[in-house]
Structures are given as C-alpha cells and as structure tokens.
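User: Round two. Same drill as before: sequence, then structure, for each protein.

Assistant: Same drill it is. First protein:
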Amino acid sequence: MDANKIKDKITPQVLETIFPIERSNDFFEAFYGDSADSHFDIRLGLEKVEESRIILAFHLIQRPGKCLACNMTYGLPQVLDRHPIININGLVSDLASQVGLDPSQVQWKLGNTHEKSSELHTVPLIITFN
C-alpha cells in the first residue's frame, strides 16, 4: 500500500478514536487509584509513514504544575508493552483496519523513551507491514 495514502488516513481524529484520552485516564487510575495523581497525559501521535513502516509515538505530556521526570518515563515502554488497558495489540489491529491493512500481517515494537523537552517525552511505536 502507498505510504502517502496510509499517512492521509491517519488523522488526529483516527488516533483519538483508537487511543482516546479515557484510556490514558483509566491507565493512571489503575496505577495510582486516581488519574489526577499522574504527572502526565498520554496521547498517540503520528511521527511518519515509510514504505513498510508506520511510526507512531505515545506522547507523554506534562500536566500543569507537575514534573515530567525521566525516572517516571524511561521504564514506561516495558509497562505499556504489556498493560491490558493500553492494549497495544488491539490498538495496532484497530489502526491497521482503519488504514486498509490486514491486521494479521502487521507487527509492532516499542522503542525507548525520548526526551523531546522538559514538558514532552515520547515512546515510539513502530508498526511494520508488507
């Protein structure tokens, strides 16, 4: 499938549909007992689309008055990888269906946390397909 066609289909609305803010809140509620105790919100963003890869990123966005410390986000890929509320398998399957790919033919992996700024860290989600 053409990378530009895939990129055109991955709109902010599609990303919000497959990873709504409620999922971030539910994740932190499971962790802390109250999502208000989190230091950041998690949003899904598109980084780029290549010939056989879609690179998304979980954007870890600092909440007002909170600190987005590296020690809180650097271990997050391992947690996101297996957490049932985040459900990366389901998220990737939903995205594949949205862009016209066969969900059974896509693979994914998480990268390491990147500190973009003191207010934004990202965790790459790399999706490969044939």
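Second protein:
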Amino acid sequence: MPHFIARTFLSIIALTLFALATNAQDAYVVSVQTDREDALYKVGAPATYTISVKHNDTPVTEGEANVELSNDEITLERTTRPLSAATVTSTLNAPGFLWCIVTYTAPDGKATVGYGSAGFDPLDIKPSLPVPDEFDAFWAEKKAKLAEVPMNPKLTPVESPAENVECFDVQLDCLGGAPVSGYLTRPIGAKPKSLAAMLFVHGAGVNSARKKADIAAEGVLALDINAHGIPNGQPAEFYKELANGKLAGY
C-alpha cells in the first residue's frame, strides 16, 4: 500500500477508535459502524453506517442525531436521523474516503461527536500531480530555514469543552511573518511524556483551529492548527471578512 494512503487510512481508523468511547463519568458515547467489518468498498457500492448512542452503557433511543457526510473535508450531505432507527447509506463515485460525522446533543445541551469512515478503492487514489523534480531540495531548504527560527511557544489557557480536558490557545514563531496558531488539548493532570500525540492540519479554508477535546479525553495530546496563522476562537464574521478580503481566493 502506498505510504500516503496507508497513513491516511490508519489516521482515520485511529480517529474512529478514539471517538467511540470516553472515560468521563456520566458520559454519552456516539458509535458509528459500517456494514462491512473492514470498511472497504468498491467505487459506487453503497456503504451503510449504523449510528448508536449510549448513556452509561444504556442505549438511547429517543431523539435524533445530526449527520454529516464528507469527503476530504468537503461536505456532501447534512441530515438528521432518529435514534430509534439510525442508519445512513451513501457512496463515492471516485476512489477516496467517506466520513460519517454524527453529533448528538444531550438533554443538558452538551454535544457528543462520533466518527465513522469507509474507504472506496483506496489503493486507486492517485496523486493530484507528479512530484516536481526539485521538490526534495526545496523542502530540505525550507526545513533548514525553519529550524533556525526558535519556536517561542505561547500557551494561553482557554475554556475547554470537556471537564476532564484542559485547552490552550497556542502560537509558535514561524517563517513568513505569521505564527503557527492552534488549539492544544490534553487530559488534566497528564504527566510529561505519558501521552500519545496527534497533529491535525487543515487542508484548506479560513477558519479557527478546533478544540479536539474528544480525542484528548482518550489520553492523547492533540494539536489542531489553522491554515494561516490567524487568531482562533473569533466570531464567524471575522473569518468571513478574511475570506472575502486578505485571504480571498485561497
């Protein structure tokens, strides 16, 4: 399996597993399962996701869940499903990965998210363009220049979406005049060097970084950075103005 496909698929599997459970007391758990155990399909074949919600291991059958189907962060469909019979079926017409992202809002107003994913002929995914001959030299030069810049990390505590997770707004000095800007989440009380780590990098878009509290709750140090070194946690209008102005056409 080509390395970039293997990394993508393994990352999706890891994210799915992390999202299926939480150790928090009195927690809701959202599970999203495909109808094939290996979650692999031929292009055009239907994949059915079964959605379930549990509260302290007891199934929740009242209410509904919000469902988003996406391919490489491009939303294909948004819908709702009743928890009494929650399934959704879809497909891809080209090789790739189809995400099913499910959000359940509990009676107390807190939202819990679960993830499912299916691969459609993933071994047939092709690079969008061939690698330029000079790419390795270009990349080595940029990494060398970046290594000369001290990170000078700045961590500012911010409100966390989960009681057992702490969250920080993080900026690191970088090339180009803008910082690396993101949210770092980790379990409260975690000891140094005791956690696995996951980095989330936005493929595109003019948005705030995201607080990966659901991932951090599973014992993971999670860092999500936005694509432009811009401030996080601002009103939607802030990012809309950037997208229509300074970052127009990105």
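Residues 1-7, 16-25 have pLDDT under 50 and may be disordered.

User: Perfect.
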